[in-house]
Design brief:
Layout lengths: L2 H10 L3 H12 L6 E7 L6 H11 L4 E6 L6 H11 L3 E5 L6 H14 L4 E4 L11 H9 L5 E5 L6 E3 L3 H17 L12 E4 H5 L10 H14 L4 E5 L1 E3 L10 H19 L11
Parallel strand pairs: 1-2, 1-4, 2-3, 5-8, 6-9
Antiparallel strand pairs: 4-7, 5-7
């Protein structure tokens, strides 16, 4: 065989170890090694359905419900689900401390349990569980470290929102994108998949707990840590059961924190990556 043809064949033919790894991944259930962190507060009506929809989409994954002592009994429902389904775990927290704190707590637990991919999503059906395989695919294919389910890229859309809510969400993302010089278009959304090792490099100390600002700040910190970030289009549907937890205070906090993040960065005190113990 000519030398150049031999080289081409060697490069194109996977090594036995790589071929075995590929075969193992193909044989494993979708979502093997992934954890889905699902914060809940008064989601009793939504939790049973969303929990099993998540596990149907990612049969190899583990679902971690992080409940902030919901007065409607969501935590008890989560415990009952976990008794009958070993893929469901429950973390009970003493009270409502902000969705960001719930996510960070869940991230720690998932990482310590050996997760390779960590997903985050809402429990109110605004994030479609059937999109989870598409969300984790760029990470398992080693093409991204953070994947954002995006309403604001081609193919993405929002249902059931009035004009005011649309302007607030799009405007918030545009404001943060401009001030923080970030590339992703949807910075306020909470449907994401993370490479676990990427999360480990992001310092959690001082991260703000509010919904909008938490989502913005975590993407900002990931970008500054050098993470490869991709967006996949999603259809976002407003919650059908329960009340939205959005408020003017949360929006105002987000805008102020975005400005402060940029100010700190300009002063040389911006986010720095590091490995947590």
């Amino acid at each position: 065989m000519p030398k150049d043809r031999a080289a081409t064949r060697t490069a194109a033919t996977p090594t036995p170890d790589r071929a075995a790894d590929a075969d193992a991944r193909a044989a494993a259930p979708v979502g093997t090694g992934a954890w889905v962190v699902l914060p809940t507060y008064e989601e009793a009506e939504n939790l049973p359905g969303i929990a099993f929809a998540i596990l149907a989409a990612l049969p190899g994954a583990t679902l971690l419900v992080v409940d902030d002592n919901s007065p409607d009994g969501t935590g008890r429902i989560a415990d009952d689900l976990a008794k009958g389904e070993p893929r469901i775990r429950v973390r009970h927290r003493p009270g409502k401390q902000g969705i960001g704190r719930a996510y960070l707590d869940g991230f720690h637990i998932a990482h310590d349990a050996g997760a390779t991919v960590i997903c985050q999503m809402d429990a109110d059906w605004s994030h479609d569980p059937t999109m989870l395989p598409r969300l984790i695919a760029p990470i398992t294919d080693d093409k991204a470290d953070l994947v954002i389910g995006s309403r604001y890229v081609k193919g993405g859309r929002v249902l059931d929102w009035g004009l005011g809510r649309r302007l607030i969400s799009r405007g918030g993302s545009l404001f943060a994108r401009t001030v923080l010089t970030l590339r992703p278009h949807d910075l306020t959304g909470g449907f994401k998949a993370w490479r676990a090792s990427t999360l480990e490099t992001i310092p959690f100390e001082g991260v703000h707990a509010g919904g909008y600002v938490f989502q913005i700040e975590m993407t900002y910190r990931a970008a500054r840590a050098g993470a490869r970030i991709r967006e996949v289009p999603i259809t976002f549907q407003d919650r059908q059961v329960g009340r939205s937890k959005m408020s003017r205070r949360i929006i105002a906090e987000a805008l102020l924190v975005v400005i402060r993040l940029r100010w700190d960065e300009l002063r040389g005190r911006g986010a720095r990556s590091k490995a947590r113990p």
